[in-house]
Design brief:
53% of the residues lie in helices and 0% in strands. It is globular and about 35 Å long.
Amino acid sequence: MRYNTKQKCAVLDCLERHKNESLTVDGVCAALGAEGEKIGRTTVYRRLEALCREGKISRFAAESGK
């Protein structure tokens, strides 16, 4: 059973707002924090992993290794 939580929607909405940027987990957390969302780093990481598995986002390593 799949269901959407407030946190899942917040992460996806954040990525939509920053779709022309490359964000790290910490970048997503910072953006969400600036928007007043309190979502743990682990939750963000898990949601990004799920979105990657679903093919909705892509992962890549920047030159800095992050």
